[in-house]
Amino acid sequence: MGQQGLGVRRYSVLRIQKSVVERYLVSQQPKGNRRTVEIEVPPRADRRRKSSKWEDKAILNLAQAGLQNECADKAIYKRIANRARLLAQYVPENRWREIAWFEEEETE
Hints:
- The protein has 108 residues and is mostly helical.
- 39% of the residues lie in helices and 0% in strands.
- The longest helix is centred in the last third of the chain and has 17 residues, at 74-90.
- The model has no long low-confidence stretch (mean pLDDT 84).
């Protein structure tokens, strides 16, 4: 093994079952005042790998959604693409579900 430079830390990830951690936390409470402990685990994010064919997959997904919703309007597809671009560029992914889109009224 080579020598590490100064200030370089090595990290390890410990995977411990939720039930084991809960049991441990209960055992650390005072004996006369033990209460159950339940840890809330956040949902896992879907991980997607970079792909050279991501555009093809996106096209197929959009086409399938359009077909399922019986959409043939070109303006709707354009609006979906524009909104997706806005989300990807300006909104953190963990906030996407909070976005509410409002329809613009057409002026004549």
